[in-house]
Amino acid sequence: MVRRSIVLTCVACLWGCPDSLGGRVGGGGPTGLLGPTDLAGAPQGGSEIALTWVDHATVETGYRLEVNAGPFDTPAMLDVRFLPADAASFLYPAAPNSTYYFRVVAVTTTLESDPSNVVALTTPDVPPKPGGLTARAVGATFISLSWQDVAKETSYVIERLSPGTTEWIDVATVGADITAVTVGGLEADTEYGHRVIARNADGRSVPSDPAFALTLTGAMTYHTLQLDRDAGRFTSLVLAPDGTEHLSHHDVAATDLLYSTRARTGTPATSVVDMGPTSHENIGGDGTSIVLDPSGFGHIVAHDLTRQALRYASNTSGRWVTIPLEEGSVGAKPRLARTGLNGALHVVYQFTPAGAPPFLRHAVKDPGVPWVMTNLPVAIDPAAVHSVAIDPTGKPHVLAAPASGGLVHCVRSPVWTVETIPLPSGLSKVDYTSMTIDDAGVVTALFHETSSRGLYTATKVGGAWFVEAVDRPDGLDPGAYCALALTPGGSRLHAASFEPIQGGVRYSRKDPGGSWTLRLIAAGAAVGSHVALAVEPTGVVHIAYRNDADKSMRIAVGAP
Fold first, then answer.
1. 294 prior amide bond cis, ω within 30
2. What DSSP designation does 383 have?
3. Is the pTM of this model over 0.90?
4. How many structural domains is the chain composed of?
């Protein structure tokens, strides 16, 4: 206690050290350094005390709030808080069933005023403030809450803040030692705030910090592809003109490359595309990608993890035929795109030469000619996921996360050029990307930034990049497996991603000149990874994702 008193006294001297703590230097302050008056306070539950006073000073640089457990003639000070100039209130953190003495002094860098009146306050013996509150949607009309248990409570009260309101309303009560409840009666596609108050015979605690959750959307229908396989990883999705879904994905247990189709009516069908040259290789275990040609035939690329090779498959002959495109430390995270001008296929994938950092390679196949491979002039982070898109003139564009951090945009015209996308301060580490290019050639990049735990877009307009937050909720981390798409022939942007902290698939859409509208597509701790997204010309959205609980792929369809 003696050492604490000395430290507090020395800190206080930095704000104008008195002859005795709380007194005046030289017997009085300068004109304008008048002491505060009418100090008053009121406990708010047992964990906070709201203090107010009248500010008379005009030249103060701040206020010193002094706190003691007894009268101020005792030798040890319990606490000292330094507050800004013109302060006239403070919410002091307290403990239940405790007595505090307060006084306030106006200070400059060298002088201080007379202290205010002393006020003594005792907090009620109510439970402490509950902590650790989390909120999680479990349906379109239900949210599940959980929190940490506190002492001395006889019950808990749950309060709700509805959208567009400012008043917290009691909605449920549970007994002592209960630390979880599911509340209902909610509306779909709506974000609600909840907080918890512990209660006993002496009163209510200070409310917990609020937790917010968005309810599940009511705009989607859900389909499960029960494949009797450990499927749905590294999924790629494309739509035929009639809305039939075509998907490439990975069978984890059998280590095979799979192809699935699902029409609007009928039973989904799945077949094995590639088991490798000896039927024992791991094909597609870190990425698959699919496109359709105008005749409706599929083209798929996948990585052979066993042989470290890039493989290509197509069913233009009526059955799936697979060939190796390149071997030798190549093929990781392949991404496939097709140009609408001449039907050329473009693949971008990782290459890790011996003794050198990894970089990206580009393979292109124009109709009737062999594949041609070139290197992109940028060293990449091998853990990050790159993306590729084709502009209206047929040029391939690539997003990549360099080994040094940040995000780069690469264009082949006719040689590869690289530009760094300028990210705002605090955004540096990118791990997932996706991109679109509209009919006017405007490039939009979608990316997940790890340090800020948010999903962002970067759009290039008039030669300049504009970065915007898409989804960045407190306490969550949306953006894994992010996918971006445009409504074909339109201008609405659609983004979907996995949120790993609570689980679930989050979706956002944006019209030109508007703001992002957020929807929760799927919820659950084991739901939502390996997201893939495609959009019909009518605006109907198809989102494929994995359910880790039953190792299946699910598809949500609708207009959220």
1. no
2. T
3. no
4. 3
